Amino acid sequence: MPINIPDNLPAAAVLKEENIFVMDQTRAIHQDIRPQRIVILNIMPVKHTTETHLLRLLSNTPLQIEIDLIHPKNHTSKNTSIEHLQTFYKTFDQVRDHKYDGLIITGAPLGFINFEDITYWKELKEIMDWSESHVTSTLYLCWGAQAALYHFYGIEKKLLQKKMFGVFKHRVLDRKIPLVRGFDDLFPAPHSRYMHIEREDVFKVKELQIIAESDVAGIYILGTRDGKKIFVTGHSEYDPNTLRDEYERDIAKGMDTQLPVNYFPEDDPSKLPMVQWRSHAVLLYTNWLNYYVYQVTPFKLEEE
User: Which pLDDT tens digit goes with each residue over 83-92?
Assistant: First the structure.
């Protein structure tokens, strides 16, 4: 089934070029089917890039997916035009009275800033608390995962000695957990962060369980035992060139940035990177939508 996104969203052209079945809202309203309603809080700087990353993965399912995009109302974006936001995005105030099958909260390049010092921290906390009663399951990504773990459980992010940057191998800790059903014994995923979550802090919270981790990159996936909150510390949604673009951006700024690990062939940045994580990424999002959203969400959301 297709993914249903706003008419004329720039990501639609990219996805159609990739032969992904995209249905705009005008056509979708004529189908007699109850779509899964997913709201995405996009706090990444270049919003259209993240839109494409996430919509690509959400499209690989038999379900029809209906998307709402929201952004913090108390933050002025420097990298996304006001026209784009006004056309395709809503604010939390516009969706707070609705219920959703799923919520995704993205990462953000805010690792060195204290949570309380972020301009939209109060609004973000309100959205996270709202999700407890208005969303079936929430997927928190990278910095979004760190923010949620801090807000709900007081788990502090910790500074790494150097940036966790590259593609790392991970292992599943419990194959009975539906989120990782079908995963290989070892599977790769990209990371790009300066902070991490320590295992000892997670073990103190009985509600949490570590689902997958890496000997090098540490915890990758963890979640609550009821599946209402899933935390992913890496970036399985990244496309082939995202780490390269980050590396080139940092070099252009004069930063002392190391090469992404296990990314460029022969560690040669002049060579095109090879994607190693695509199948795992698709499976992660498909499993989340199937086992944590579709199979447990009420048929009539507003009557829950």
Answer: 999 999 999 9
